[in-house]
Amino acid sequence: MIKKAILPVAGLGTRFLPASKSIPKEMVTVVDRPAIEYVVKEAIAAGIEQIILVTHSSKASIENYFDRNFELETTLEQKKKLDLLAEITQILPEHVSVVSVRQPQPLGLGHAVLCAKDIVGNEPFAVLLPDVLVKNQSEENDLAQMIVQFERSNAAQIMVEAVPDDLVDQYGIVDVAVSPEQGQSQVMQGIVEKPAVGTAPSNLSVIGRYVLPAKIMHLLEKTPRGAGNEIQLTDAIAMLQQTDVVEAYRMCGQTFDCGSKLGYLKAVLHYGVTHPKLGAEFIELIKELKL
């Protein structure tokens, strides 16, 4: 069973400036909690027990968020604000740990994953990009289903979703012989980065969730710098495909790119209207605005 997940959070968040000048983009709130909490809870719901943050010196607030704050807890307890106390002490279940490792240089996603090599060891692991929130459509989330597919086939899993044909040039698009049904996986021939409209092998884009064998770490060590003079995870996956099967898993849920301002606003709307405490009033507010 896969128990470890890598979350690369060292990026500077230039798409979210000026807010990300002083606040990690992962800590910008979606309704009433930072975006990264949704991603961590997604991982926990899939059975992950150790979250590995690949971080940067400016991102200490992320580590602090998942740590205990005894002064705040004592104050809430003394003031009998027990509901709030329960919320901040139950962010992480007791069986889940968060550890962090620094990425000393901004050398790409592949390099960020490689920074966690010593913590991962010889175990398969998941990678979740915190820019992307995945809203489930069923009780079992997509990451959990990817892990099941990995354990069934022993093949790396790359989560994908369908995008409009006229937007394929904005994404990494997977090459598959047959497009899988939602919730299913299909053997993947490769990934084409931002193909021209009309030339894409499919309309299935990579969206930032991976389940990978430990072997990928050894391949990352051999991966030369690619696009942007960075070590690219997709290049290592291409190397893995030379000897192993890699599968594209087609997701069932809905994604929100919280690394972009418009994607963030969409996330606030969607998570806001379904919020257990604020949802009904938020819907009424939207009606009042007559959008």
Describe the 3D structure.
There is one protein chain. The chain is α/β, with parallel strands linked by helices. It has a single domain, classed as Spore Coat Polysaccharide Biosynthesis Protein SpsA, Chain A (Alpha-Beta Complex). It is 33% helix and 23% strand. It has eleven helices and 13 strands. The protein has a nine-stranded mixed sheet with strand order 5-4-1-6-11-8-12-10-9. Strand 9 and strand 10 form a beta hairpin. Helix 8 packs across helix 9. The protein is globular, with a radius of gyration of 19 Å. The model has no long low-confidence stretch (mean pLDDT 92).
Name the CATH homologous superfamily.
Spore Coat Polysaccharide Biosynthesis Protein SpsA, Chain A
Strand order of the largest sheet: 5-4-1-6-11-8-12-10-9
Output mean pLDDT: 92
Q: Roughly how much helix do the residues carry, as a percent range?
A: 25-40%
Report the total helices.
Answer: 11
